[in-house]
Write a structure and sequence with these properties.
Blueprint (H helix, E strand, L loop, with lengths): L10 H18 L9 E2 L2 E2 L3 H12 L1 H16 L20 H21 L4 H30 L7 H9 L2 H32 L1
Antiparallel strand pairs: 1-2
Length: 201
C-alpha cells in the first residue's frame, strides 16, 4: 500500500498566498482609491485580475488555496468583498458566484500554464482568458439562480442575465489581457528568487 505524503508548504508559499489574499481584497474595493472605475454607477473590481495572477504566478494548487483563504476570510466576516462587505450573508448576493469562481479561475489558469509547460506570452494570455470564461460561466449562473430563487427579482431569464453581464465584458477583457501581459514577468521574477534561495540553501 502506497501512502502519499501531504504536500508541505514552505514559508515562502504561505507568504505568497497571503500576498494574493491581500491583493484580491484591495482589488475588490479599488474604486475606494480610483472612483472613476465605474460603469453606470456600478464599481469595477480587480478581484478576477488578481485571481488570474494568483493561478499564473503561484500555480494551480497554491493559487486556488489563496482564493479559498480569501473566500473563507470574507465569509468569516472580514470586510474584504466588494463594497467592504463580508459575512455569511454574502452568499445571498447575486455576485457571490463570481467570488466562488475565483477558486476555479486560479486553478484553471495555473493548470493551463502547467499543462502547456511553456512560459511564452501567448500561454499566459490564453490561460488568463480561460480563467475569465470560468469566472463568467459560474458567476452568471449563480446570478441567475440568486435573482430568481433567492431574491425573487421578477423572473429574469438566463439570457437576460448574460445580457446584463455583457456590459462588463469589454472592461473585463481588457483587464484580463493586462493580467496575461504582466504575468510572465512576475512569474519569472518569483521563480528566479525561489531558485536563487534553493541554490543558496
Amino acid at each position: 500500500m502506497i501512502v502519499k505524503s501531504k504536500p508541505r508548504y514552505r514559508a515562502i508559499d504561505l507568504t505568497r498566498i497571503s500576498i494574493f489574499v491581500a491583493l484580491t481584497a484591495v482589488g475588490a474595493n479599488i474604486t475606494a482609491f480610483a472612483p472613476f472605475l465605474q460603469i453606470g454607477g456600478v464599481p469595477i473590481t480587480l478581484q478576477t485580475f488578481f485571481a488570474i495572477l494568483a493561478g499564473a504566478i503561484l500555480g494551480s494548487r497554491l493559487g486556488a488555496i489563496a482564493m479559498i483563504v480569501y473566500l473563507l476570510l470574507g465569509l468569516a466576516g472580514l470586510p474584504i468583498f466588494a463594497g467592504f462587505k463580508g459575512g455569511l450573508g454574502s452568499v445571498m448576493s447575486p455576485t457571490f458566484g463570481f467570488i466562488l469562481s475565483f477558486i476555479l479561475v486560479a486553478y484553471a489558469t495555473g493548470k493551463w500554464i502547467e499543462w502547456r509547460k511553456s512560459k511564452r506570452l501567448v500561454t499566459f494570455i490564453t490561460a488568463s482568458f480561460i480563467g475569465l470564461i470560468f469566472n463568467y460561466v459560474l458567476g452568471t449562473g449563480h446570478m441567475y439562480l440568486a435573482l430568481n430563487f433567492l431574491l425573487d427579482a421578477g423572473g429574469i431569464s438566463y439570457a437576460q442575465t448574460w445580457i446584463i453581464m455583457a456590459a462588463y465584458l469589454p472592461v473585463d477583457a481588457l483587464t484580463i489581457l493586462a493580467a496575461g501581459l504582466v504575468a510572465p514577468k512576475i512569474h519569472h521574477a518569483f521563480n528566479r528568487r525561489s531558485e536563487g534561495k534553493s541554490t543558496a540553501a
